[in-house]
Amino acid sequence: MRAGTGAGWQAQLTRLIPAWRPSGERADRLVVLALAMVAFKASNSQFLSQHLPGRGVELANFILEYLAFLVFCVLTVLALRRPLAAWVVRCKPHRLLAMSPLFAALALVVVLATAVPPVVRGRQLVDDANAMAVCGARAIAAGADPYRVPEITCLRSLGVSPTLATPLKVGPLRNVAVYPTPAQILAAARLQDQGRLGLFSPLGKPPLTPVAMVPVAGLPLWARTVWTAIPVLVLLLAVIFAAGSLWPAAGGLLLLTLFLNGSLVNFAANGNGETFAYVLMALSVLWIRRPVTSAVCLALAVGSNQLAWFFAPGYLLLAVEEGQVWRRLVAGAATLAVAVVPWLVRYPDALGTIVGNLRAHTFPLGSGPITLVLAGFIPAPSRTLLLALTALAMLAIWAWGALAREYRVAASLLILSGFWLSWRSLDEYLAQIPLLALVALFSVLGRGAAEDARVPT
Questions:
Q1: What was the pLDDT predicted at 420?
Q2: What is the DSSP letter of 448?
Q3: Which residues contact 373 (CB under 8 A, 6 or more apart)?
Q4: What's the confidence (pLDDT) of residue 457?
Q5: Distance CA 220, CA 324 (A)
Q6: Buried residues in 113-134 as b, exposed as e (16+ CB within 10 A)
Q7: DSSP assignment, residue 18?
Q8: Ordered alpha helix ranges (H), 269-323
């Protein structure tokens, strides 16, 4: 018995020994996905407009961003297609992974050199959603209702400028054409100080996001950053184990998502409580072959962040593929009943506030075609029209994945790409796609016969 156990551990350790010149289908897929991440970074880059003047250059920059996002989607589909396209195999992209252990070491050094100094100096970026999660956590710790904390009051308590608040198209801001100026936001903030509420978005996240920040809500920003780094470390270790001998390249790519705006690692480096939800979404895919564990992770993500609500249909595609759907549904429902429903009972306004936040008349913001509106190239279209286009795009991608098995994995994740068309196509809505694609590569695709065995829960 002991000999068998020892042999098993030796086999696992041997599996994790990195190859200096890796080969095989998983290595090919990983390189294509790395190129997709480069395209994603380019899809949110204002390089031209930052270095050259003129409206023509600005428009050209937008067009290049849109093309880069299209390339990102195409490369993601190629990386996750089943089977891997023959012409991709013939190109032998795995050759780019030569010396991948050195790549991992370099990625670690670069990420630490980039992320640690702002933490030491206390200069991380804190947006309003990040701040509201902390203020919500403080309210919970004090026995108050986190969904009744005014946003401007919260931002000021954390030393964050009110100009970072999410204004609503109501009251004095009703007639603002595109997005309020800082002066207009500050004027609205003064009205809120005088008791005029409803001008800014309240805490709009499901209850588990502020709950996750309760242990560190009263601590400095650096401590909150250390706290949000813990789930990223857990995910990193899980990816390393799942990637086998490709772990240096896989781990390095995960760390380098720090440079994708709105990504999991980027949020964790700024002490953002949404990190927990994104880690749970990733683990629900990475552990997809463990029905109960995977469903519990997704349910906890659903109770933490609305993005998981929109990812749930994609998860369903993967769940049907892997089997034991009813077991997953029961585990997920039980998790929601135990972990989320009590908070909704405790705070009766929570559900209405969360849903109302989705329906609130916000101003346009983000990447994608909406940037043409923000830059004044085209007039603002109907908000309802853009939301309808977003929903139709998500539905079409889901149907594509349901009907075409070879593209099912890619479609299940690219459902989130529909947000690119939305009225508010924020970075964090799209930046989780590369993360989910990375974990799907090792959990669903490209496994050898030994790795392809079903894992009981």
A1: 96
A2: -
A3: 178, 364, 379, 380, 381
A4: 41
A5: 44
A6: eebeebbeeeebebbbbbbbbb
A7: P
A8: 275-286, 291-302, 307-322
Q: Pairing state of beta strands 424-425 and 365-366?
A: parallel
Which residues are 365's β-sheet partners? 424
Length of the chain: 457
Element (H, E) at 424: strand 424-425
pTM for this model (two decimals): 0.92
Question: Is residue 275 very low, low, confident or very high in pLDDT (cuts 50, 70, 90)?
Answer: very high
Confirm if 228 and 275 have CB atoms less than 8 A apart.
Answer: yes
The DSSP output letter for 259 is G
Interacting residues of 192 by C-beta distance below 8 A, sequence separation 6+: 150, 152, 153, 199, 200
CA dist 426 and 187 (Å) reads 25
Q: CA 282, CA 440: separation in Å to the nearest integer?
A: 9
Cα 353 from Cα 296, distance rounded (Å)? 24
Instruction: List all residues 6 or more positions away from 448 whose beta carbon is below 8 Å from its beta carbon.
Output: none
Over residues 39-61, the mean pLDDT reads 89
**What angle separates helix 275-286 from helix 432-443, to the nearest 10 degrees?**
30
Residues 187, 191: Cα–Cα separation, whole Å: 7
Concatenating the DSSP letter of every residue in 79-114 gives: HH-SSPPHHHHHH-GGGGGTTHHHHHHHHHHHHHHH
Contact between residue 270 and residue 121 where contact means Cβ atoms under 8 Å apart: no
Task: Name the burial class of residue 191, with classes exposed (0-12), middle (13-18) and buried (19+) by CB atoms within 10 angstroms of its CB.
Answer: middle
The structure tokens 């149907």 sit at: 399
Q: What does R_g of the chain's alpha carbons equal in angstroms?
A: 22
Q: Which residue has the tokens 């100094």?
A: 117
Tell me the pLDDT band of 12, cut-offs 50, 70 and 90.
Answer: low
What is residue 20's predicted lDDT score, i.e. its pLDDT? 63
Q: Which of 98, 82, 75, 71 is nearest to 25 (CA)?
A: 82
